[in-house]
Structure formats: C-alpha cells, structure tokens
Design goal:
The chain has 13 helices and 20 strands. It has 477 residues and is α/β, with parallel strands linked by helices. The protein folds into 2 domains: 9-39 and 212-259, no CATH class; 50-205 and 273-473, Alkaline Phosphatase, subunit A (3-Layer(aba) Sandwich). A hairpin with a 2-residue loop joins strand 6 (175-176) and strand 7 (179-180).
Length: 477
C-alpha cells in the first residue's frame, strides 16, 4: 500500500493574490496566527466514534532515566553498581521497583515493565532517533532523516473534518539542545504536532489560538474567510518546502480550531475538579499528564509529553552525569513528581474506562551506566554540588534499559525480559527500537510492514523496515 501526497481539498478557490501581500495581511486576518502556528494545526484520524479510537500517550524522559533507580533495581549488585536506594515490593508478587516509586508500587497490576530494551545509539540524538524514527544509525545527526512515528500516524490518519488536532505535543518531543530528535523528514511538515508549551500548572497558563472566549470574535473571523478564495493562485514556484501548500491543506482546520468550543474545553484544565488536579500533582508534569488524559478522552490519537525542566534538577533533564547532577540527589528530588504524575495518569486511564483503547508508554532514549562514576561537578544548583565537588553520576547506556507500558488492552502486572546481575546487558527477551515502534503501530491498527511513504526523491520507503511487535504486549481478547 503506497501512500502519496494528500490532495488539496480547497484547490478550486479562484482569485489571485501576491504571496508577499498574503504574508502581510493574510495571517493577521486569521486572528494573528503566525506561519509556524498554522503549521501546528493538524489533521485527524478518520474513525467515526472517538470512544472507539485507539490512542497513545508517550511520556518521554529526556536525557535517559537510570533503570537501576526506577524499574530494574539490582539490590545484590556490588556497591559500585547498586546505588543507595532499596527496592520495594509492589501489588504484584515478586515484582519490585525503586523505593522512590511507592505510588507505582501500589498500582503495579495496571502496568507491565519491559526490562530488555537495547540499541546502539550512545548519544542523545542517535538514541532518540533510533527510538522515535527507527533510524539504525549509531551516529548523532542534527535532524532526522526518517519521519518519527507520531508524524507518520498523523499523515496516515489525516481527516480535516474534525476540530481537534490528531497529534498534540504537550511540552513536545522535538529537540535535544541544538539537535532535532523528532520531525517530519520527507513527510509534509504540516503533519507535525500541535504544540502546547509552558507550564499547565501556572494559574495564568492557556493554550493560544484555541476556541475564542468571545463568540463575536469567531463571527468576525468567519467574515474574513473570503481571503482564502485567493490562496490557490499563490506562486508555488518559490515554495520549495511545501509550506504554502501546508497552509492551504490545513487552513480550514485552523479556523475550526479557533472557533471550536470542543477544542477550548479539551485543553482547559480548569474544567477539572480540584481533587483530580491534586491527584495528578500541582506541578508541571502532573498537569501535563492530566491534559494528555483530557485530550485522548476528547478523541486525540497521539500525545507526547516530555518530562524535563526545573523538576529534573540543575540541568533540566535526566542526563545524570556527575558533571551535571549528583545522580542520587537528582533522583530523590525528581522521582516523587514523576511517581505521582505517572501513577495518576495510569489510574485515571483505568478508572475512566479508557484502558482498552489508550496505550501509555514511559521511556527515554536510553538508560544509565550501571557502574557509578565519580567526577567533579561543573556547577552548583538543585541536585548538584558546587563546581569542583566530586559527586556520583551515571553516564549513557543504550545496551539495556527499561520501559513502562500500561493500558492498550495489554496484559499487565508483570515483567518482560531481564538484564544481568549488574543491569549491564540484556539476558532475556531482547527488544529493539524497531520492535518498540512495531508494537505501537500494531496497537493503532497500522500494518507497518506493508505501508510505504515516498521520500524526497519519490522512492517508496517502508514506514518501518525492521522490527516485530512485542508479542507479550499484544492486546488481550
């Protein structure tokens, strides 16, 4: 099955207008939407009943969490490996997690731990690209050469008739410092995420350009749609990246998003009872997860949310080299926020009857070195001693790490795979990034081994050339 470029449903609109003139007055005519903002207005999955639509929430731990201090503790390892925290028992007999995850422990019957993920990408960009795009290259790149799975799904599901974006990034998975770790590559950029930035826990937070508060604003905007009648005559000769076509393709949904009460309601956390917001945690990660739940309930299919920033410690991510953080101080600082947000999301998915169709995945690009390193800090701050202080850290480790899977109709309350006594190598049920991606596609009902998308040269590329769904994570009948 070959998927080619989407047709322009508005291509019959007459009337010439200069491209420069459009950029001067056109975007301001659409309630001051910027060009990048229009690129973020997305198409929808073509499934009639949103209650039956599968969905994925990806919680991304930017920088790579230590598997030994989260989901794969090694209490019997030598001191240079095991760290300072103890494992605790969970609601599942024989399953243990780090003592800093007590809320996880109480709901262990609602998730499955995969302890045997591995790949060859030792740098943050390479590791992220392997996990998100299936790129097998072990070398870092400035940007992806293959589209990420989120964009691919959005491309395949495009339906401009629905008011909500089908792919939303709530603090999206897009970059690592100066590297782009997820993106459209050779897919039209209009299929990337609708981006929600900022801290949803901030009392002044709101998502811009979503559902006018004043109905009259929407009516005035509708009166200006006549401008659209001139768009199709724009000179495409200078449009090398297809950006103006992206405006044509998604302008109608941009207008729908601006005027839709459903869209405004879906993003409005103030509609939630205080007890629910408290349950998730009155902090950025908790409220990001609450927004993710609201969005899947409203029919959004793909949601990514990154856990980074101030709740991580001094350098704002999970990259716990000793030069960045005192790894144990950092984990002691951030894991209570993480524990609360993730466990609340999982419990809520089950409590609200979403667990059969909504798959929750928690992962980063890799794990951390089982052997503890001790070097000098590069600077003081939260979870880091002053510059020059020798402190413990863990470096990059793609050869073995853990993931959490919940919902999606899968069998939960267990463990898949295993690492050796030090947590260094996979010794049972090796899983690869291709397997990870194939499992996601299977949940969404996409036959990844059969579908191709043309690259820039027009050559068809399988959306996933390698990897098989993880059988233990199959939907239960």
């Amino acid at each position: 099955m070959s998927i080619n470029g989407k047709p322009n449903a508005l291509s019959s609109c007459p009337g010439p207008i200069k491209r420069r003139e459009f950029l001067r007055i056109g975007l301001s005519g659409f309630a001051s939407l910027s060009l990048p903002r229009l690129f973020q207005l997305r198409a929808q999955a073509a499934i009639e009943n949103s209650k039956d639509r599968t969905a994925v929430i990806l919680v991304w731990l930017r920088g790579g969490a230590s598997h030994l201090e989260t989901y794969d503790p090694k209490p019997d390892a030598p001191s240079e490996f095991r760290g300072i925290f103890s494992p605790i028992s969970t609601s599942v007999p024989g399953l243990q997690v780090c003592e800093l995850l007590p809320r996880h422990a109480k709901i262990a019957d609602k998730f499955t731990l995969l302890r045997s993920m591995a790949h060859t990408g030792g740098g943050h960009p390479a590791g992220s690209l392997q996990m998100l795009t299936g790129d097998p290259d072990s070398q870092d790149k400035e940007k992806p050469v293959f589209p990420d799975w989120m964009t691919v799904v959005n491309f395949l599901r495009a339906d401009r008739s629905r008011p909500l974006p089908n792919y939303v990034g709530v603090n999206p998975v897009t970059r690592y410092d100066n590297f782009t770790i997820a993106g459209a590559a050779y897919v039209n950029p209009s299929y990337g995420p609708f981006t929600v930035n900022g801290d949803p826990n901030d009392p002044h937070f709101e998502v811009p350009n979503i559902g006018f508060k004043d109905r009259a604003q929407g009516e005035r905007l509708s009166e200006r749609i006549g401008l659209k009648q001139s768009l199709d005559r724009l000179d495409r000769a200078v449009d090398q990246l297809g950006s103006m076509r992206a405006i044509d393709d998604f302008e109608a949904q941009a207008l729908s998003l601006l005027t839709s009460p459903l869209a405004r309601e879906a993003f409005d956390l103030n509609s939630e009872p205080d007890r629910t917001r408290d349950r998730y945690g009155r902090h950025q990660w908790g409220q990001q997860c609450l927004m993710a739940r609201r969005l899947v309930e409203a029919g959004v299919e793909i949601i990514t949310t990154t856990f980074d920033g101030p709740l991580c410690g001094r350098v704002g991510n999970w990259d716990d080299h000793a030069v960045n953080h005192h790894v144990f101080d950092a984990l002691k600082f951030r894991l209570p926020y993480f524990d609360q947000a993730v466990s609340a999301l999982i419990e809520d998915i089950y409590d609200r009857g979403l667990d059969k169709r909504v798959l929750v995945i928690v992962t980063g690009e890799f794990g951390r070195t089982p052997r503890i390193e001790k070097v000098a800090s590069s600077g003081g701050g939260v979870a880091s001693g002053s510059a020059g202080t020798v402190q413990p850290g863990r470096d990059h480790w793609p050869r073995a790490f853990s993931q959490l899977w919940a919902g999606g109709g899968i069998k939960t309350g267990g463990v898949i795979g295993a690492t050796d006594k030090h947590g260094e190598e996979v010794v049972d049920r090796l899983a690869t990034p291709g397997d990870f991606l194939a499992t996601i596609y299977r949940h969404l009902g996409i036959d990844a081994g059969q579908i191709t998308i043309p690259d820039f040269s027009g050559r068809p590329n399988l959306i996933l050339p390698r990897g098989s769904p993880i059988s233990e994570l199959a939907r239960q009948s």
